[in-house]
Design a protein that fits this description.
- It is built from three helices and 18 strands.
- It is mainly β.
- Helices cover 11% and strands 39% of the residues.
- Strands 1, 2, 3, 4, 5, 9, 15 and 17 form an eight-stranded antiparallel beta sheet that branches.
- The two termini are 35 Å apart.
Length: 281
C-alpha cells in the first residue's frame, strides 16, 4: 500500500470527519486530485496548510522546519458563517445548511480569491470571501438576509479554535514536569487592542479569555508562540472596521486552548470589505 504524502496525512482526518456530512448535496464544487479530494479550496506553503471542504469546514495545519505537519492534535479548525448574540452577551454559531451552499468560482488548490454563499439553520443568509496572498489567508463576509426571525441580533463571524497543544505531554515524573514548565515559560502570547495598546499574558496563568482585561475594546491582532509549533508564530489580524474577541469557556490557562472569534462591524462594513488575516510566521 502506498504511503500517503505529508499533505495527504494532514487532510485525511478532516475528510473522515466530513464523511458523515452530506457533501454530495452541497453545491460547492470540490477537487478530485490528491491531496485535495473533497475540498473546495486548498493552499499549502512551507509554514502551513489551509483547506476548506465542500461543506465549508476549514482547517489550518502549521508545518515544522522540515515541511512536515505538527501533530494532528495541534491543528486549528475554522468555522465561517453567522453567529447570534444572546441577551447575556454570549453567542451561538449557527450551522450551515450544506445544500444551500453555492458559488460561481471553481474549486482550486491555487486560488487567489473565492466567494461563496450559504444559509444557516435560522434561515439567515451570508456571503463569504476567502483570499490568498503571499502565504496569508484572509477571510471576510457579510449577512445578506437576516432570515425570518427579525428579533435575532446576528453578525457574520469567523471562528478559530486554538487547541491544547500539550494535551499529550507527559508530566508523570519530576523531570517531565520540570521540562513542561520550562516550555510554558518560553511560550509567548500577546494581543494588540483596537486602540493600539499591547497586552501580554502568561500562557500558564489561569484567566478568563473572554474578559475585558484581555479583550479590551476589541482586539486588532493576536500573536501566539508555542513550543508545540516548533518555532512558528501564529498571527491573527483584524482589519479596520472589525475586531477579534477571545473566549475559553472557563477560567483556565491559555495553553489549555481557547477560541478566536472575528466579526466585522455591520454598520461600518456593510459591503463586507473587512478581513481576518491568518498567518504562520
Amino acid at each position: 500500500m502506498k504511503t500517503p504524502t505529508p499533505a495527504l496525512r494532514i487532510l485525511l482526518p478532516l475528510l473522515v470527519l466530513s464523511a458523515g456530512s452530506p457533501i454530495a448535496s452541497a453545491q460547492l464544487p470540490n477537487l478530485d486530485d490528491h491531496p485535495w479530494i473533497g475540498y473546495f479550496l486548498g493552499s499549502e506553503n512551507r509554514k502551513f496548510t489551509f483547506g476548506l471542504t465542500a461543506v465549508a469546514k476549514g482547517k489550518i495545519t502549521p508545518m515544522d522546519s522540515k515541511g512536515e505537519p505538527v501533530a494532528d492534535a495541534n491543528n486549528l479548525s475554522v468555522t465561517i458563517g453567522i453567529e447570534d448574540i444572546k441577551p447575556d452577551g454570549g453567542t451561538i454559531m449557527r450551522q450551515i445548511k450544506p445544500e444551500t451552499l453555492e458559488t460561481t468560482d471553481p474549486a482550486s488548490a491555487d486560488f487567489k480569491t473565492a466567494t461563496f454563499r450559504g444559509t444557516v439553520s435560522t434561515g439567515a443568509k451570508f456571503e463569504a470571501t476567502i483570499e490568498q496572498d503571499r502565504g496569508a489567508i484572509s477571510i471576510g463576509g457579510r449577512i445578506l438576509d437576516p432570515g425570518p426571525n427579525k428579533n435575532l441580533k446576528s453578525r457574520f463571524a469567523v471562528r478559530l479554535n486554538v487547541p491544547n497543544t500539550y494535551s499529550k505531554t507527559k508530566t508523570e515524573t519530576k523531570q517531565e514536569q520540570k521540562d513542561f514548565e520550562k516550555k510554558l515559560k518560553e511560550d509567548r502570547f500577546q494581543v494588540k487592542w483596537t486602540d493600539g495598546k499591547r497586552v501580554k499574558e502568561k500562557i500558564d496563568t489561569e484567566v478568563d479569555a473572554g474578559s475585558k482585561e484581555i479583550n479590551g475594546p476589541g482586539i486588532a491582532e493576536v500573536e501566539i508562540e508555542l513550543s508545540a509549533y516548533k518555532g512558528s508564530k501564529l498571527v491573527f489580524s483584524a482589519s479596520p472596521n472589525s475586531a477579534i474577541l477571545l473566549t475559553n469557556g472557563k477560567v483556565a490557562p491559555l495553553y489549555e486552548g481557547f477560541g478566536v472569534s472575528w466579526s466585522p462591524d455591520p454598520v461600518k462594513d456593510k459591503d463586507g470589505k473587512a478581513r481576518l488575516t491568518i498567518e504562520v510566521k
